[in-house]
Amino acid sequence: MARKYGALILALEHRYYGESYPVPDMTTPNLAYLTSEQALSDLARFRNYIASAGLTDTRSSPTLNLKAPADGPWVVFGGSYPGNLAAWFKLKYPSLAAGAISSSAPLHAEYDFQQYAEVVGTALAYSKIGGSDACYSAVNKAVDRVQELISLGRLSELPTGLRPCGKLSSREDLATYQGELFGNFQGVVQYNLEGRPPTVAQVCKIMVNGTDPLVQFAQATQLIVGQQGGQKCVSSSFQKDTVDFLSNATFSGYGCDRQCTSFRQWIYQSCNEFGYFQTTTGTDHPFTAFSALDVNVAGEQLCEAVYNLSKYGGPNTEFANMNYGSRDLSGANITLSNGNMDPWHALGIVNRTDRFYESCSGEGCKSKQLLTKSESIVFIDGTSHCRDMYKPEVFGQGSQYCPGPLCAPDTSAIKWGHAKIDANIAFYLSRYHRVESKTQI
Q1: Computed over its alpha carbons, how large is the radius of gyration of the chain?
Q2: CB 138 within 8 A of CB 121
Q3: Model pTM?
């Protein structure tokens, strides 16, 4: 696409992530400038810096050499939280971009994100991606059985790979254990058919191939964690596995390798601005028996313990939704792309026919979806997180994924989505050039 439009591609690192940190460590007081508003301001300054004059920037990787000012039209792209930033940049700095492509953006901030689990359940039952009602039912029965054995104290009856690594001495430990098992299936659904094993189809094949859902659940779990080096037990210590891990305030961005993480930074933003805490306290999904994973543990207690907060009242989601508009952006030239099998689409701007249209959780919650004439929805059937951001046929024939279970040729829905996004970009650029011509006259 960049080649088609003669575009220069620039990627900006978010402050506090990677090598872009303005403070010596990530202790809580030093995270004060880790906000979406500051990130947007950084992006605006970066855009104007690049556009101001011909320059040679040796700090870029690779070195950026511009012989003339880059004062042509800009289109901003982003997926997931950066998808939010792309839409919000066009909203808050409308003159600095001709348009925005916002992919898989959870634009509605929500403390207790119950719908995530509900989309996971929907995906496990969706036949177009290899799910089935039988798969959903088997997972449901297995989860119920796991929790039953835990409640009865009969942990020795759990298959080896499902046993907790330590004692479940508190509700927080139980939530950690439940969250670990739930998280395995979260990852499968969120990144389904995006080159990352296993797929929903592979997991569901195991779940329906047997007579004991608990055994099949253990086998599916081992298939999932086997891609990450395997595990002999399930993490179960709230303090050790969660709090201590997230409390590491040292930066490791410079010369970062695979050991670097950005979890502390992201959870801070979640605690501060957005919430997004994925719980199992909803009612329409196969993990309802894992009820300890509620927003009290996954949100409040986590934030208090990791960032040494007292009297934590939750993230300021009300301000975030008021400041950015939630699902009523009132913006211009913004494309909003989502896949209906992506759990994050439940907080996005989607088709009116979707089950999660205007969805929200919490007493008296409201999230009205309204679009301007130049805001466009691209809703792609059967796809997961940020699928539209991959180049055409990246997982299809001729790629490293074919033949094999990860082979995923572009569906007609994906091809339609790519074409729609391309057409919108052409429209944004044509409008920019028409305005420029009128200004020059």
Answers
A1: 23
A2: no
A3: 0.94
Question: What is the arithmetic mean of pLDDT over 135-163?
Answer: 98
Instruction: List, in sequence order, every residue forming a beta bridge with 336; answer none if it has no partner.
Output: 102, 377
* pLDDT attached to residue 229: 57
* Residue entry with tokens 């957005």: 274
In sequence order, what E strands does 240-296 have? 275-278
Q: Where are the alpha helices (DSSP H) in 11-167?
A: 36-52, 81-92, 115-124, 133-152
**Rounded Cα gap, residues 89 and 76, in angstroms:** 8
Contact status, residue 318 vs residue 328, Cβ threshold 8 Å: no
Instruction: Region of 275 please: left (phi>0), alpha (psi -120 to 50) or beta.
Output: left
H-run or E-run covering 346? none
Distance CA 69, CA 55 (A): 8
Ordered DSSP codes for 115-131:
HHHHHHHHHHT-GGGT-
Q: pLDDT-derived band of residue 260, with 50, 70 and 90 as boundaries?
A: low
Instruction: Give the Cα separation of 86 and 40 in Å (integer).
Output: 9
Which of helix, strand or coil describes residue 277? strand
